[in-house]
Amino acid sequence: MSYVLGIDGGGSKTVCVLMDDLYQVLGHGEAGPSNYQSIGIKATLKSIKSAIHNAVEAAIITNPVNIDAICLGLAGVGRAADIEVVKGLVKELQNNKCLPITWALQPANIVICNDALIALVGGVGQPVGIVVAAGTGSIVFGRNHQGDTKRVGGWGYILGDEGSAYKIAIAGMNAALKSYDGREISTSLIEGFKQHLDLENIEDLIEVVYRREWGVKQIAALAPVVDFAAASGDIVANIIIEDAVKELVKATSTIIDAIFSVDSALEVVTTGSVWRGRCKIHERFAASLVKKFPNVNVIFPRYEPAYGAGLLALQTTQN
C-alpha cells in the first residue's frame, strides 16, 4: 500500500491529510499557521510536523506508514526562491525521528506549490479548471489540460484584492462616511456599522480603524455589514457588491481568454468567506460569468485544499 501526504499551509492553520493509493483519506490533522514569510521557517516547520503527526495518529493503520509522495501547498509560495526554502523544509521533515512514519521520497515525488493550486484541485477534483478565491484577500488561478497556468490578482490589500472581504468592507465604510457627509445618498450602512461595532456615532469609526490599529483581518471581518445591507435592499451596498462581482468576473474572464478556449466546458470553483453571504453574490457572479461563457459551470468546492494536495502527490506515484 502506498501512502502520501497532502498539506495545506496558510496564515491561520495547517491541514494535513494522509491518503492511500485508493484515494481514501485515512487520517486528518491540523496545527498552527505555516506561512513561513510571516512566521518564519522554524515555526512553519513546527506546524507542519504537528499536522503530519496528528494526521498519522488519527489513522487506524497496523502496518508501517511509508510515505511515497508529499505535496505542500503553502500560502505565499510561488517564486523559485520560495520553492528552494520549502525543499529545505522537506529535508528537515525527513530527518526528524519523532514522526511516526518512514520516508521513501524521490525528488519527483515532492510537489511544492502555492495554495491556489491545491484549492483548485481539491475544489474541482482534478488539476484542470479555475479557482476564484475571495476571502480576506482575493486571487483567481487557472490551469488547463496542457498544464498551462495563469494567475490574476493576489497582489495584497494595498495593490489589489478586488472583490475581497477587505475591499468590500473598506468600500462600505467609505460609503457610510460619504453619506454622513452628504456626499452620498442615504444608506443603512451608517446604522449597520454603528450597531455592529456598538458605536454612538459613525464618526467613531476613526477611533476603531485608526487608533485601535486594526489590521486587514479585523477590517475584512466587517464585510458582512455590507452583505446584510445589500440583502436588505440597500442601494449603496448593492452597488458595492456589484462592483465586487464585476471585478471577480473580469479576473476570471482574463484567465479563460488566456489559457482556455472560449467555448470549452469548464468548471470554476469558488472558495472563501465572501461567497457565503446573504446577498446572493455567488448567484450574481455565476449568472454574469455564464452569460459571457455559456459552457462554464460555477461550483462550490467538492473537497478541501489538503485533499487537492493529496491528489497532486498521488499523481506523482502514477507517472
Q: Care to describe what's here?
A:
- This protein has 319 residues and is an alpha/beta fold.
- It has 13 helices and eleven strands.
- The protein has helices spanning 36-39, 41-58, 80-95, 115-124, 156-159, 165-181, 189-197, 205-211, 216-220, 223-231, 235-259, 281-292, 305-317; strands at residues 3-9, 14-20, 25-31, 66-74, 102-103, 110-114, 129-134, 138-143, 149-153, 266-271, 296-299.
- A hairpin with a 3-residue loop joins β7 and β8.
- α6 runs antiparallel to α11 (235-259), α10 crosses α11 and α11 packs across α12.
- The longest helix is centred in the C-terminal third of the chain and has 25 residues, at 235-259.
- The radius of gyration is 22 Å and the shape is globular.
- The mean pLDDT is 93.
Q: What is the residue-mean pLDDT, rounded to a whole number? A: 93
Shape assignment = globular
Unreliable residue runs? none
Distance between the termini: 17 Å
Total DSSP E strands = 11
What fraction strand?
15-25%
Counted by DSSP, the helix tally is 13
Radius of gyration based on Cα positions:
22 Å
- What class would the helix/strand composition place it in? alpha/beta
Order of helices and strands: EEEHHEHEEHEEEHHHHHHHEHEH
Query: Percent helix among the residues?
Result: 40-55%
Biggest sheet architecture: 6 strands, mixed
Q: Secondary-structure blueprint of this entry?
A:
Layout: E1 3-9, E2 14-20, E3 25-31, H1 36-39, H2 41-58, E4 66-74, H3 80-95, E5 102-103, E6 110-114, H4 115-124, E7 129-134, E8 138-143, E9 149-153, H5 156-159, H6 165-181, H7 189-197, H8 205-211, H9 216-220, H10 223-231, H11 235-259, E10 266-271, H12 281-292, E11 296-299, H13 305-317
Parallel strand pairs: 1-4, 4-5, 4-6, 7-10, 10-11
Antiparallel strand pairs: 1-2, 2-3, 7-8, 8-9
Helix pairs in contact: 4-13, 6-10, 6-11, 7-10, 10-11, 11-12
